[in-house]
Each structure stands twice: as C-alpha cells, then as structure tokens.
Amino acid sequence: MSRGKRYDTEAKLNYQKVFAVFIAIAVIIMFVFIIKNVLKERENKIKDYEYFALYANNKWGVINQAGEEVIKPAYQEMIIIPNKEKDVFICTYNINEENGEYKTKVINSKNEEILTEYEKVEALDNFDKDGNVWYEEKVLKVEQNGKYGLIDLNGKELIPIEYDEIHVLDGVENSILIEKDGKIGLVNDDGTIIAEPQYIDIKNLGDTYKNGYITVTEDGKYGIISTTKKQILENKYDEILQVYLNDYYLIKDGESIKVIDSKGNVIIEKGFDEIKSVTSNGLIFVKDNLYGEINTSGEVIIEAKYQDLKEATDGIYIAKQNEKYGIIDESQNTKLDFNYTSISYNEKAKLYFAEDENYNTSVIDKEFNAKVTGILSEINISESYIRMRIGEQYKYYNFNCEEKSNIEILKNNTIFLSQKDGKYGYVDKKGNIVVDYIYDDATEQNEYGYSAVKQNGLWGSIDKNGKIVIEPKYNLENNLIIDFIGKWHLGEDINMNYYCEK
After folding, report:
1. Any idea what DSSP says for residue 5?
2. CB 10: neighbour CB atoms within 10 A?
C-alpha cells in the first residue's frame, strides 16, 4: 500500500530554495566586501601621516606620527620637512665647508627620489621674533643653471626659473622676495606676483602680510602697496615707518614724523616723539619716553605718564607704572592694581593673564576679578581650555574659568592622567585604572596617542592603551618640553623640532 507523498523516502532537491540560498550568500559576500572596502578606505584616511625629523646614531632620518622609521637615519645633515603633512623630505649632502657649496635631493616616504629635474631644491626657511625656525609650507625654491624659480610640493611650477635670487621677507609668512637685474619684487606662496621686480627694497608694514608692504624706488622714495597689489601710497615719501596703524601711516618728512591717511592728508604732526600703535579711540604715542594716547585731532586722551601702554579691548588698557603692570580704563581709572611683572590679553578667550614676580599667573575675567592662580601650562584656543599647575596637580578650566576634569576637556584622549598619594597613573573615560599609580611624574596623552612617564628621575613613554613603549631610561633635565612619539623623545633644541634617542 502506498504511504502517500508525505512519506516518500526519496530525497528531492528544491531548486528554488537552493537558488535563493546562493543569492543570499552572494549578497552577504558582496556586503562583506563593501564593508571591508569602506573600512579600508577609512583606515587609509586615518593613516594620513605627519612626519618629523629623526636623529639617531649621529645620523638623520624621518619618523611618522606612529613612531615608525620612514627614512632610516643615514644622512649627516638634518632632513628638512617643509610641511609635516606631506612626504617631501629635502636631504643635503656633499657639503664643502670651504666654499659653502652643497647638493640637495628630495625623497618621499618610500625613499624614492623625486623632483629630479632640478639641480637643487630647497625649503624657504624663516624665523619668528623669538628666533624659532619655520618653513613656507606650500612652496619650494628650485635652481637650474644659476637661476631660481618656485614650485609647489607636488612639483607644479609657480613662477619660472628666471630670477637671480629668491628669499623670504624676514619674519613674515606668505611673502617671498624675487630679485632680477638688481631689482626686487614680491610674490605670495601661490606664485601670484604682488609686485614686479622694480624696487630696490621691500619691507613689511606690520607683523603680517595682510598689513601690506613698504616699497622703495630707485630714487629712494617710499610708498605702500597692499597684498592685493593696490597702490595705497605713491612712492613719494622720504621714509615710511614700519608701524601698522590700520588706515593711517607714519611717515618721516626730513626730521619730522607725521601721521597721514591713505590720501596723504596730514592727521597729526606734533605733540609726540613716536607713534606705537592704533587704538579704538586714537593712537598710542610716546613723549619723553613715557606713553599716552591721543585722538586723531591730536588731543591727549591719556596723559603720557606710563612706562608702557597697550589697548587690550575698547577703552581698556594694559599699563606699566613703577616697573609693574596693571589695567586702566580710558579715564585712567585703575581696574587692576599695578602688582604684576607682565599682563597679556587673549582675545579668543577674552581673558587677561597676569604674572607675578614668583611666576604665578592669575587668570583675570572681564570684570577684572582673579578667578584662578597658579603656574600657567597651556592656553588651548581650539579646544577652549586653560591648563594650570596648582600645587602638585594640573587642573583644567574652560574660558568661563569653571574647573573641569581632564576627561571632560580632553575629549579625543583614550587615557587620562590621574594622581593618587603623590604618584601618577592613568584612567579610562569611565575612571577605571588603566595604568597603576607608579610614576613620579607624567604627561597627558599627546595628539599622536603617546604619554611621557617618569620614574626614578628617568623618562619613557606609553601608548594610547597604556602599554609601555619604552621603559623610563632617558634623563631629560635639559629639555624644556617633554614629549614622545613612540620610543623617540623631542630633542633639547625645540626650535629644530626633531625627535631622537639620547
């Protein structure tokens, strides 16, 4: 007797279900590949490296932000990295100490030689007012057959190789002087010519290229041009002083100093020995070595009786009297007593920072109240916080002078410095101990994920997970800044910004 189809023992293949399973598997595989590619692309973006000069075994190389050796130390001279986000490394070799001649070559992170079509490639170095060296990050100077030009870091020509010399305007970024046939011109770091080579000299008007430039013609006459090539003052003045006064200019006419406007009209010509700066009400002037303020009609607003005077905000001034600094208003009312060796105003934070003779800094709010006092460690504008050392502890404050924990402030960190019983360790975002309290001193995690730790007078480093990268072994007493990338520590000469092993 037949048992019916329900009980048929012969196995039969359901092709529709099999096909559906294959399709599902294919979709899953495709989805996995898509996710994998997305993660890989994201990983590649995360691994956009920054580069730093490395000094080890008396030779120079390059490391990246992970502390990996990109170029093994093999060069006698420091490798120049104009832009730390670009793998363009300039190596100097075959130096002749007698005649000063040398050769250069440019390599990338794969140790491949690039930009080989030029006889010499150099970075354009400059110095700030504190003597720290920095480089124009977007341009390189190239030489061919005794002539010079500019290229960008990808090798694109910005100006042709036809100039007799190219160098920076001292202390001013984005301002490159070009020389041709004994005359001087000016370009920016995009290669835009601001002034053709037609002057015997070009100077900065103020502290930044945005303030414009003083030009001097062959007949010794001074004028002013803007960064957009606009002729602000014709070249007809005996001298223009390098003091930026917004819409006013300080000229020297024979032995007389005058303040003029952009049309050449004389605004003030007596009552002062020097003009120092412009204010919201007028100008800071010097008379008989004392500072005061006058308006544009020449009327005295603040009597010249201070050893120094600078406007911080509208109508509020940082003044010096009897060798100490305080704060006054435009009516010469004292807002902060003259008890400090220095006072500065941070416009972004809208706070005053007043240092006393014991090197303690008081943070002063707009009502001139001292909100916190200690050793100032950091003012971080991008993250809007202040770091102070008070006693044996570092404390954090927002720009409202409210105390915050390092976990609240350092949002991108993975571990956080913690102190207990005079020893330092690290905790995670939930306050769980990651590194035991065993160190005599330590630093917060830096932007590359490394922290410096000190034990028995020696420094080492840990990574973002609190794992030891290098045991404390370095005596860094002479280092102004303690910082590590991997096993490498920042060199003593922070002006050079290199990492090494001692």
Report:
1. G
2. 4
Separation in Å, CA 105 to CA 93, 142, 163, 448:
8, 11, 21, 29
pLDDT tops 80 at residue 16: no
Q: Which amino acid is at 216?
A: V
- Asked whether 282 and 301 are in contact (CB, 8 A), the reply is yes
d(CA 105, CA 71): 14
Can you give the pTM of this predicted structure? 0.85
pLDDT digits over 263-317, tens only? Answer: 999 999 999 999 999 999 999 999 999 999 999 999 999 999 999 999 999 999 9
- Between 2.60.40, 3.30.70, 2.40.10, 1.10.10, what CATH number should domain 200-270 receive? 2.40.10
Based on its alpha-carbon atoms, the radius of gyration of the chain, rounded to whole angstroms, reads: 31
Distance CA 165, CA 147 (A): 7
Residue 2 confidence class, pLDDT cut points 50, 70, 90: very low
Neighbouring C-alpha atoms within 13 Å toward the C-beta of 395: 14
Q: Tell me, what's the pLDDT at 200?
A: 98
Cα–Cα distance for residue pair 402/258, rounded to 1 Å: 48
Whole-angstrom Cα distance, residue 274 to residue 252?
11
The answer on pLDDT for 23 being more than 70 is no
DSSP, collapsed to helix, strand or coil, labels residue 269 as coil
Domain range annotation of the chain:
200-270, 410-502
E-strand ranges in 6-115 read 51-56, 59-64, 69-75, 89-93, 103-107, 113-114
- For 91, 171, 268, 428, the CA distances from 492, given in Å and listed in that order, are 22, 23, 49, 31
